[in-house]
Amino acid sequence: MLRVVVLISGTGSNLRAFLEGCDSGSIPATVVAVGADVNAAGLEYASSRGIPTFVEPLNAGDDRAAWGDRLADAIAAHDPDLVILSGFMRLVPPAVVSRFSPMLLNTHPAYLPEFPGAHGVRDAFEAGVSETGASVIVVDNGVDTGPILAQRRVPILPTDTVESLHDRIKPVERELLAEVVRDIAARFTATTH
Ligand code: GAR
Fold this sequence. Notes:
Elements: E1 2-8, H1 13-24, E2 29-36, H2 41-48, E3 53-55, H3 64-76, E4 82-85, H4 94-100, E5 104-108, H5 120-127, E6 131-138, E7 148-155, H6 162-192
Parallel strand pairs: 1-2, 1-4, 2-3, 4-5
Antiparallel strand pairs: 5-6, 6-7
Helix pairs in contact: 1-6, 3-4
The structure holds glycinamide ribonucleotide.
């Protein structure tokens, strides 16, 4: 079973869907820890399921490189095969990228390279385009610039708000992530057995 550490910053609804996929057997992975940069609501859900959690905050004035080392060590302590950013809203520090990429994935609520960054849904909505999408990428040192592993278009409806659009993108992100992790797990099994 693929050992996965998930990093979040928010509610963790995609994390919850990922865990449900692991429970049902549709995603051949085990979430061995959930980490965050803040006291994210999703941590409570992970704890309630008995999953170890950790928080590595980056406070104003902190040394970013030292934070990167702490975060990389906290992840490594759980010996993951794969690390997934699921609504982790910080630029990943180089220490984490160098230690875990390419087994370091991010889900993004836009059709990259369109609308990278922290406000992918709002930026697409405000741009007035007729469609946006969802992407799963390998994390590199840029802002959503890593290799694209899967992506799908999502139309923007005339009746949409930023929130309703995001609510329709999230299920697509979840499907794409499940597909990518299934694919990685299959390759992983083939090379380790
Ligand atoms: C997801 O849509 C994820 O793609 C996005 O944050 C949301 C987290 O939702 N991440 C980014 O925008 C990263 N640039 P959740 O906390 O409900 O799972």
